[in-house]
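Changelog note: in this version the structure field was regenerated for every chain. One regenerated record is shown below for reference.
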Amino acid sequence: MSHMTETSRPSHQYQQSIAIGSDHAGYELKQHLVQYLTAQGWDVADFGPSAPDPTDYADIAAPLAEAVVDGQHRLGIVICSNGVGVSIAANKVRGARAALVGDSWSARRAREHTDCNILALGAYVIGSQIAREIVDAFLRSEFEGGRHARRLGKLAQVEARHSSVERSAELSPMT
């Protein structure tokens, strides 16, 4: 079952496609950012929720991260009360690099140095104006490569060592 609804015209330009989603705590900020991004010409795929009803962050953040990693969207934005839950959920998807940031410098750095593909925001931590500044910095920045590519390669090796099914089950508090 997909949580995604299109909030703007379909795009044939991958580089303009942004996925966004939240839990109930991030709903209001998500709605604000959807309007803001659409007004700037971005094609926004809204992964939900469609109302501020109780929503588990993993139910939104994980499918959004999968869609970003699969190349359906250039980047993603996930929002919850403090940004921690959605960033953890998104980062469980192999290939997702979600950065929880609270300022535009960190957002820019997350793209330039670690090639983060998902921005995590805390709706109760930042206001809508700061959120817009952070989103702008994140979306306008590009990965610098060079020495940072070598570091990402090392992160990929760590991820590969620790992402086997057996290891994941062994570490899960639910087993």
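Spot check on this record: Residues 130 and 152 are 28 Å apart (CA to CA). The chain has two domains: 5-144, 146-175.
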